[in-house]
Amino acid sequence: TMGGILIVGSILAANLLWGNLGNHFLILALSVVVWFGVIGFVDDWLKLKGKNTRGLPGTVKLSGQILLGFFIGAILYMNPNFSKALYIPFLKNVMLPLGVWFIPFILLVIVGSSNALNLTDGLDGLAIGCLAFSAGAFSILTYLAGRGDFARYLGIPFVPGAGELAVFCASLVGAAVGFLWYNCYPANLMMGDIGSLPLGGALGIVAILIKNELVLLMVGGIFVWEALSVMIQVFSFRVFGKR
C-alpha cells in the first residue's frame, strides 16, 4: 500500500530534472502535489500504524486542503496579470467575471478535484488509468495555452508561462503509466491517499492556471460521475435507509 509515494516521487524527480523551477505556475503545481501528498501520507500512516480505517479525521483532512486552496486563490487573486474570469469552452471570448467569488471558486476546483479522484480510487487501475488520459489531454492544452499564436487561432485563453506546465502534465502521464503496470487487475500495489489526493489536486490546479476549469469536468468526467455517485448514495442511505 501507499504506492503513491512512488508516484509523487516520480513527479517531483521529473520536474526537478526537466522543469523550469523559475516558472511560478510550475511551483504552484508542485506545491499542491507536495502539500496534498503530506496530508495523504499522514492519513495512510495513521491507518497502518493504528490498525484502523479512519486515519485522519475528515475535518482535519479537509481543513488542510482548504488552507492550501485559499493560499493559492489569494496568490492568483493578487496577481494583476492573471484573469479572474471563468471562460466558457467552445464559445470564443465568452467569460463570466467571478469577482469576490474567485477565491471560493478556486477552493471548490482544487478540493473537489482532489477528493473526486480519491473517491474514484476503488477498482483496480481505474483512477490511475483515467488520470493518464486526463493528464495527457492537459499536456496538449497547457502547451497551446502558453503559445499566443495557437491560443488566438483556436480561441482559447492565452496564459503566458503556462506552456511550462506541459512538462508537469507529462510527468503525471509518465508516473501514471508506470504505476498502472502494478495497479491493473489484479492490483498488487495500491496508491492510497498519498497518491489520490495530490493527483486530483494536480489536475485541479492545472485547469485553474490555464483557465480551463469547465473543461476539467469533461476531461475528468469519470471523476465527476464517481463523486456524484457517492453523493447520491450517501443521500439515499440517510434519507431512505438504503443505497
Q: How is this structure best described in words?
A:
Helices cover 71% and strands 2% of the residues. It is mainly α. It starts with a helix and ends with a helix. The chain has ten helices and two strands, in the order H-H-H-E-E-H-H-H-H-H-H-H. The longest helix has 27 residues, at 24-50.
In brief, what are we looking at here?
This protein is mainly alpha-helical and 243 residues long.
Q: Share of helix among residues? A: over 70%
Spans of at least 5 consecutive residues whose pLDDT stays below 50 are: none
Shape: globular
Total strand count, please?
2
- Structural class by SSE content: mainly alpha
Element order: H for helix, E for strand: HHHEEHHHHHHH
Q: Please summarize the sheet with the most strands.
A: 2 strands, antiparallel
Q: What is the terminal separation in angstroms? A: 29 Å
Radius of gyration: 18 Å
- Average pLDDT score: 93
How much β-strand is present in the residues?
A: under 5%
| Widest beta sheet: strand line-up | 1-2
Number of helices: 10
